[in-house]
Amino acid sequence: MTLQDFFPQEAGLVVTDFALTPDLLAIALKTTCPSSQCPDCGQLTYRIHSHYRRVLADLPWQARRVLLRIELRKFRCMNAACPRQIFCERLPHVFASHARTTDRLKALQKQIGLALGGRPGTRLTEKLFVPTSKDTLLRRAKDKVDSLTTPRVLGVDDFAFRRGQNYGTILVDLEKHRVLDLLPDREAKTLACWLKAHPQVEIVSRDRATAYAQGIREACPQSIQVTDRWHLLKNLREAIERWFDGKREKIRELIQKSHCEKPSVIQELTNQVAGGLSDRQKSRMEQ
Ligand SMILES: [Zn+2]
């Protein structure tokens, strides 16, 4: 295996040099594909306009940060009808246009942002040798989640971008146990907008927020709304508490009555235990 094997073959990248320090692995690469496709009209062109370099952060290696320095080219679009004359070549399997990080590092940052949020996520990225600011982690978390087919059973719940200040909505495919999307707020209108684009949802599990119920009714009236398990148990606990609150006087009366009529359960147990003890143990208990 060589350094080159760490990059997708279809990207056509060749490693030309590398440097290793105690903290950093720097890899120089260049592209080899003779042509590139215009991003506007899609026409292939072989006419190189100029060269430029781009530096990208990549996944860490052996407790070192990894930086890629890639020699890229600008091409001329030869389609006379195309509004774009010059364009930068793209490597869709490695990095996005104008990105400063590789796609695979971006995916890691997104997972950390989703799992831990800003500040705790930043501390983890430092330990993992991919230091990332909290703003970047939160931006990654808000990025469109991988597009998936419309779920049949959708879970809707709120989550904190910043606890006590800024809340959003998380949408989960409850059958595949995958996060589908993150909405920027908890408004009925925002959820309704998402559901209108995914009308095949059959069942929506939600908390007790009226905004979510309203958004679902508005955009997806045919779907069945169910309370999620946590709120179902909360409803049950509160219903039981209310029932006992209403019977408080009656319960007190029954307890007092039982005290008058016969010894309490605790007293009965104490008597039974005492009956099984020796005289010496009984005298110790009385002391
Ligand atoms: Zn073009």
TrEMBL record:
Q: In which domain of life is the source organism classified? A: Bacteria
Transposase IS204/IS1001/IS1096/IS1165 zinc-finger domain sequence ranges: 37-78
Entries under InterPro entries matching the protein: Transpos_ISL3, Transposase_DDE, Transposase_Znf
- Per UniProt, residues of the Transposase IS204/IS1001/IS1096/IS1165 DDE domain are 154-286
Q: Which residues form a coiled coil?
A: none
One Pfam family it belongs to = Zn_ribbon_ISL3
Q: Which NCBIfam families match?
A: transpos_ISL3 (NF033550)
* Protein name, entry field: ISL3 family transposase
Species this chain originates from: Telmatocola sphagniphila
